[in-house]
Amino acid sequence: MFSTGQKIFGILFAIAFVIFIVWSYRKDLKLHQLHYKKVWVVGVTIIIVIGLFAVLTFTLHE
Known about the structure:
About 85% of the residues lie in helices and about 0% in strands. It is an all-alpha fold. The chain has one domain (about 5-60).
C-alpha cells in the first residue's frame, strides 16, 4: 500500500511533529499557567451542556 520511503517519511514526520509540539508546549508553560488558570471550568460547562442536550433530546423523542 505504501512504499518504504513513504513509511519512513511518515514515521519521521510523526516523531518530529510530536517533538515540536512538546517543545512548544514546554516553552509556553508559564504563559499557559498565567492566562489559563480556570480553563477547566469551561470544559466542565461544555460537558454539562452537551449532557443536558442529550437528555432533553432523548426524553422529548420518546
